[in-house]
Fold each of these.
Amino acid sequence: MQVHSPSAARPWVRSLLSAAALVVFGASAQAQTILRWGDVVGGSHPQVQMIDRVAADVKARTAGRVEIQSFANGQLGSSRDMIEAVANGSQQLVTEGGANFGAWIPSISVIEAPYIWRDPQHLIKAMNGPLLASYNEQLVKARGMRILGAVYYGTRHVSTTSKPIKTIADMQGFKLRVPENDVFRAMAESWGAKPTPMNFNELYLALKQGVVDGQENPLPTIKAGKFAEVQKYIVLTGHIMTPRLVVVNDAAWQKIAPADRKAVEEALKAGMNWADEQIQAQEKSLLDEFKAAGVTIIQPDVDAFRKATLAIVPPKFEAKWGKGTYESIANLK
């Protein structure tokens, strides 16, 4: 009987064996869980970079069993679109401002109330403690979404296309783009402005074409959105410090093995800490960058903005937020 060595095997047999090995390897390496994570802000923003960092960390910690896919710049839709998609499970993760979840937790919009936070540290500490746990419990029950953490989005300021804003009187009739929620609209109205709700991914063109007179966002978002290209003034109103929530579809979350869920939580905590540091660092350096690009920075009468806002907004929303809630959060240590 003639014996054939392995090297003498027919080429088609070797090819078939190689293909079979690739199929087995591919099956073993394929992620067991894929989480689509969306954000409306652009890819250069620290909170989008955070997604990429968390994705790489999760892949390493879970040996590829959990894969996070990043979709920045509103690729998956508007804020409302993505929140609804996470609620129904067609998208698994979203980073969004807390007030946008007010349809299910009416009181949560207080965390984006004007002048409620003293500084970023006040916000970060409060929003990753018992306060967040309370909102999380309500959101899971109301809509099947779970809050995994909160990040500091930055301190919001007004920017304008052509009008210098120095006093609150300068805001009379000013068409100000605001996010699509009641608190921001009420704040703009307290200044005498005309609030114009609009999706974030429509904003650059609206500013360029003069559909609105200006907008309000943190400095890192103004940079990521390239708004300085079409804005002449940045007005340091410092009116809102926004906490953004990382929210997951709870049914998808529960399907992940406990050990892998823990790995995601650890990676997310590290990523959020990094993003918080990046945002605060950018806030310190960006004014000089904007000045160098030809943007005029204005220091307005902030006390006048604050007084006008606090006279109207907290009383208007007291029934929704709960009596004394604004004051209790503002006074948290």
Note: Residues 1-28 have pLDDT under 50 and may be disordered.
Amino acid sequence: MSFIGKWAGLLGLLAVLVIGDQIRVNRPGHKFRLTVEVTTPDGIKRASGILAVVPDRNYNRGGRTTMRGEAVFVDLGQGKNLVVLLAHQQGEKLDLDDINYVALRAYGAAHGNRVSFSDINRQTGIVPLQGDLIPVLVSFGDPKDPRTARLVAPDHAEAVLGEGYAIRGLTAEVVPNGFWPIDFGGVLGEPVTRGIVAKLPWLAAPGEAAATALKAASLPVGGGIEARDAFARK
């Protein structure tokens, strides 16, 4: 083998090692389907989205668990909607990290035992999200205008959505990781759900539109949080 050939082989091996390590670091620890069902005068409406949770696998352990995915938008008909944010409200604080642990905690609550990251992919079935596990729910009078956001209470949805509307339930279901990063669907695995910008077009524009929506819904904004992360994460 020539000198150039040897170097080409070494560089190729190095590239494979680097790519493999990046896959190891960035591959989701688990994915789960977040589903919401709403009772309406026209029947039950539902929508779901696939979210991916990526634990910190960096060598220095200086990172944190992150999320990929988007808020779940439900078209309720008659110009009404419901959006399940990637956020939880804890008193005067909006928490953007709890969504990372929703599936873990939901399976633990359903089975009466703590579930760890190493065990989550062994979980099966659909489990309910109840109480503090329910993310923040909002509705937009006009999805094109972030100023029309209103906070929806899980047990009093009719106060915002109108008579005959009620939150029937939210659930989580672990789904296979698939062959990330080529999980394009089918046998390759379900990809993270995208498309919220088509429903809330102001998310595509630069500026403070996401913060405007949170403020309009009387949600706390500040404390170093990125308001857009409540709606979508890369």
Note: The helical segments are 3-26, 102-111, 158-161, 196-199, 209-216.
Amino acid sequence: MTENPLKIKLQGYKLILGSGSPRRKLFLEELGLDFEVRPKSVAEIYPEHLQGREISEYLAQLKATPFKQELQPKEIVLTSDTVVWHNGASLAKAATPQEAFQMLRTLSGDWHEVITSVCFTALDFQKTVSAVTEVKFKEFSDEEINYYIEQCQPFDKAGAYGIQEWIGMIGISEIKGSYTNVVGLPTHLVYDTLLNL
């Protein structure tokens, strides 16, 4: 029986997912990897001058900081951050239905970028990779936006939406780049990076 090439490569290593995201956990499971989930919370604050991928890379690395004191040899921690970038601004997680509505109204009928950065940290190295996907939404009616917010409560997601949810099914007219990146983890990059570490 042929084994998963990445699983063979990671033999003797322990992979740690430093995130409580159910979507990221599911993707690592679907890649066929053994890993431990060990989320740690950090204040996701970044310098104001950062733009686009600089923000997600900074935050992915910041999320790795609490692990540095406790990592053992042959442990690799994976931390990640996703940014929705539109018209020169980062759309973070919405705190209220009003904020979510405003974000989706802004994204409606336009292109935006979804940038996910993944930071791989071990005792002797740190490497950060990023993927950028361009997404185009159709023009939403207020009723569609309100229905989505009430049904899906998208307050844990950058840009106040999940591509895999109702709004993605009815609203995304074009996508350029990785789909899994928009969900929250560019699986092709994770696979290649771990394979080549």
Note: The CA atoms of residues 46 and 55 lie 7 Å apart.
Amino acid sequence: MDSAQDPISTTFRDRGPQAVDSSIVPDGASCIEQEIAGWVFSIYTYHPRQEAKPEVLLLFDGMHRNAEQIRNKAIRLAERTGMTLLAPLMDSERFPNWRYARAGVIQKRKIQPPAEWTGPILQALVDWARGLFPCTPARVSLLGHSAGGQLLSRVSAYSPLVHVDEIIIANPSTHAMPVLHERAPYGFKGLFSTEEADRRLRAYLTAPITIYLGKEDKGTRNLSRSTAAIRQGSNRLKRGRFAFRTAQGMAKSLGSPCHWRLVEVPGVAHSSRAMLEAEQLIEILKSKCVTDPPS
């Protein structure tokens, strides 16, 4: 897409602090109701009381879907970065595991119609978040921990997001691997035509993805143990490293760029609080850039 013709996709630089639309997101911690893409969400928000940068961090919790809790864990991060936090509640009643961790792509081993996929909902959340600042579109990053990381992995693979700065996939049980031979939701096999699979795989490799891992996340509690999951490694740390190495190798074999990076946090196991409070996350968010997948 030509950013000269589409100012909303421009990378905004040298922008001073701006006020968020207080009629939508009040200062401090709050919870708002918002209809997005036909779904009514409770969105737990935090807006730093000082004027903030026009930057938003969308947060996706793990298997317990505690949006309020993950918002609370990230408040210190928001105060340090000036970012506005948005944690949409994707409850297990409306978003069971197949709609959440598997991104709506597979239910009971059957491929679902693309209209049922969760990716378009996340894109609508991104588009809504970008409009929160009256003077300029906000820069939007996403962070998902554990099951939330699985959601972001599969959405990035199968329904590439546009107008995002960073997609931070933290400590997921499994990844959508950037390979054509592994069946979805662990790879690209079975979802697309050969040509379309190749296109989406390249888009996946060039997405602004950070594989964000706790170096002590070596336990097996709630770890997926399917055959395809075990092929990724024996724990979350090994699986994340394997996904990153696979992305690098696939990009090399395709002659494609790879915009992924791997960031590990020493001394941290499977803890969303510790991952949100780590200095490494500050560095990730400082160095982000707007990237759109190829059309």
Note: The chain has nine helices and ten strands.
